């Protein structure tokens, strides 16, 4: 079960979710860029390195510290393109940890564009722009163009290929390209659990659930504490209607992530399922999401899109469309997954659904 529609990031999101934990460690290509395109100010460089360190060990407090260090580096050297690039990336991650996408999105876009103004050779800002344009602006064509520019600038960067694969797999209509990009990323970095997870995610988006299970089981066996692989398994099991297994994987994910909101949601699903099967799990999940929505209105928790998903699976068409309409009014990034989200299959044939797909701007 995807608790957040992460378009890493964002998608994920940026964002998924999904999301922002993906690609935490900079690969060799990124390290080489950092060494070649730095600053003559040693204090600025030290602050930048600290910012990357906090960003790569992600939770909300570390990401806030990363913002502070990148801004301090920029204050020491206003022409430091890499510091702006890091700032753009961290702002794209923050909503996946409960921060406000309304506030963080324009900051991510501005920092990415400033980085490119200072150094057009950097690929990372294009990666940020691509994810933000697709998830937040619903500009699919513009986002794809930015991802392709990032690949052109850094073709051997596994994370660039993987992020592109994840984003286009959510949108749909480009399944073969998404699988090709995800496989290319794994060829470039076969040991990365994050990149293997994205390959599993892409198979889930294409409804190839058995393939996703095989990939993500291998990831969990080799990386027992990696939470996102359990998210991949939960999604695949849910898609196969293996609900007890899906809920168990979701529980493990919530425990490993240490996210209290995620834990509350997983517990509600488990309790509801034990008392009344699938209907109970979905009903309990809706109530939990509505509470989180009231108590944390500025964050990603309890999104209208998630509530619509649950109502769709309950067969409550009217409530599903009501919440999808709310999601549209709130510009919920989850709507970028309308065409691939199997949880919405019960309402997919309705003409209103096709009109919503058109209004979001998804490829026809």
How many distinct helices? 17
Order of helices and strands: HHHHHHHHHHHHHHHHH
Mean pLDDT: 89
Taking all Cα atoms into account, the compactness measure Rg is 19 Å
Major sheet details: none
Number of domains: 2
The outline comes out as: globular
| CATH architectural label of the largest domain | Alpha Horseshoe
Question: Which CATH top level class of the largest domain fits?
Answer: Mainly Alpha
How would you classify the helix and strand content by structural class? mainly alpha
CATH superfamily annotation of the largest domain: Tetratricopeptide repeat domain
Helical fraction equals 55-70%
Q: Predict the CATH topology of the largest domain.
A: Serine Threonine Protein Phosphatase 5, Tetratricopeptide repeat
Number of strands: 0
Can you walk through the features of this model?
The chain has 364 residues and is an all-alpha fold. It folds into 2 domains: 1-227, Alpha Horseshoe (Serine Threonine Protein Phosphatase 5, Tetratricopeptide repeat), CATH 1.25.40; 303-364, no CATH class. Helices cover 69% and strands 0% of the residues. The protein starts with 27 loop residues before the first helix and ends with a helix. The relative contact order is 0.10. Residues 2-26 and 30-36 have low confidence and may be disordered.
